[in-house]
Amino acid sequence: MLIKEDLDIKEKLKILSDSAKYDAACTSSGSSRDNSGAGVGNTVSSGICHSFAADGRCISLLKILFTNECIFDCRYCMNRRSNDVLRTSFTPEEVCTLTMEFYRRNYIEGLFLSSGIVVSPTHTMQLLLETVRMLRLVYHFNGYIHVKGIPGADPSVIEETGWYADRMSVNLELATADALKSIAPNKSRKSILTPMRQIQLGIRRNEQLIADSLFSGHIADCSASHDIGAVNSPATDYRPLPVMHPQMRDPRSSPNAYVPAGQSTQMIIGAAPETDYQLVTIAEALYRNYNLKRVFYSAFVNVNNDSALPSTEDGPPLLREHRLYQADWLLRFYGFTAAELLSEAHPNFNTFIDPKCDWALQHLGDFPVEINTAPKSRLLRIPGVGPRSVERILKARRHARLTFSDIARMGVVMKRARYFITCDGKTDELFRQDEDYIVSQLMDAEHRHALQISQNGLYRQLSLFDDNNENYAPLAAPICNNV
Ligand code: SF4
Predict the structure, then answer these.
(1) Which residues on neighbouring strands pair with residue 450, listed in sequence order?
(2) Is 180 in the pocket of ligand 1 (CB under 6 A)?
(3) Which helix (H) or strand (E) holds 355?
(4) What is the rounded CA–CA span in Å between residue 444 and residue 261?
(5) Is 179 helix (H, G, I), strand (E, B) or coil?
(6) Which of 20, 53, 217, 437 has the most neighbouring CB atoms within 10 Å?
């Protein structure tokens, strides 16, 4: 392991921001632009990424590792112990300096801090804690902080970190315990789920303390509970944890103090032979049982050219990642369950049409849906109609019968919706309740071209729904509105 100790802070930033780029919880902007003197602010590529706040606002973060040294040997990771790469570490003061300087220059609105494992998980977590505590208490930094929870770290250190962070995340990494064992042998399901549960309970405890203080004027008694189970075990025996940061002891003085932006996780897609059904089922269980705010999916890139892992010579599985993000939105905002979208018999998403259209095609008997009378739950199931459009439709139809042009103005994506709706009993001129016809209309030109389809209606003969046939360029980024 080549450790460089005489690097200046700029050189360290270059190495440790590059090392952080494979964490999908944020997306690197990758752009660099100096101020010409005519505008305000600069754009720098090193370590700046974009994330989304709970209200949908896009915020830029300084995304770095504290260190890229690591005693673990996860096969998918460029920072693994067995790789011969240049290693360096920040000090807590250096991270604080960078964060404050970038913040003052308006480059960033917050910090995303992860780390390799140096010495031990607890030692690493202590370094992260020291950094964020210094940022909050010494530098009085009030911006957004996202910190990784290190699997295997002492619970008391994770607990205290939560009082200074807005968001915490512990990466699940791989969907099955077996895959974790073979690909990330130093991690285990238990070492990942333990801090995840702890953060969940800490958030609940904080909410409980606030409720107690509001309604009774007393602060709840804190007694210990470390309820850790499998992904599927619901947290039914919640009791508050004992440790609180002394400065935050009274929740009335600092409401929503503990990990107020909630926790998230990341799963790597395509490093192991798991199915989409397994992935969405696990994501659903994490949302339900661990109250996660987000599950991120990261298309596997074989950065180490590890022969034991799938080759990504043709590019990472970005289209699969995109479908999983679309399905994730269906779970969170559209009332779908994983079992409705996929099954053991139908375990992977259709690569040619999005999961909602795919579901609708398999349930053509439930359509067309009448826009002027259908309940909200049915409107949400129409392809091309999102939650915002549904709200607009429900509001507007109290006053008037809606037409196709009305709902198009409300944001409904007619090129998808037209095959599944009626307005006042009328269908669109392109409406035909025929699966082959609808699929051929929905498939975009890029896919048709790649598969040399020149005529509509041929998808079944050509087995275009067979995932093994995919050989086209993947979509670039998940955009999940009105799916
Ligand atoms: S713990 Fe694993 S994923 Fe994290 S830096 Fe170390 S080798 Fe990489």
Answers:
(1) none
(2) no
(3) helix 355-362
(4) 37
(5) helix
(6) 20
Q: Which helix (H) or strand (E) holds 216?
A: helix 189-216
Q: Using CA atoms, how far apart are residues 389 and 394, in angstroms rounded to an integer? A: 9
Residue 209 to residue 201: CA distance in whole angstroms: 12
Q: Please report the pLDDT score of residue 102 as a whole number.
A: 92
DSSP 282: H
Q: Which run of H or of E encompasses 324?
A: helix 318-333
179 CB neighbour count, 10 Å cutoff: 17
Residue tagged 């929870």 (tokens):
149
pLDDT of residue 351: 84
On average, the pLDDT of the chain sits at: 81
CATH code of the domain made up of 2-33+43-266: 3.20.20
Would you list the DSSP string of 410-433? TT--HHHHTTTEEBTTBPPTT---
Ligand 1: residue of 87, 117, 183, 268 to mutate (most ligand atoms within 8 A of CB) is 117
Sign, CA torsion 195/197/203/207: negative
Domain ranges of the chain: 2-33+43-266, 352-469
What does the alpha-carbon distance between residue 192 and residue 282 come to, in Å, rounded to a whole number? 14
Q: What is the DSSP string of 92-108?
A: HHHHHHHHHHHHHTTS-
Identify residue 257 by its one-letter amino acid code: A
Work out the average pLDDT over 41-69. Answer: 71
Long-range contacts of 435-441 (CB under 8 A, 24+ apart): 435/361, 435/364, 436/460, 438/361, 439/352, 439/353, 439/361
- pTM confidence score: 0.80
Residues paired with 113 in a beta bridge? 64, 147
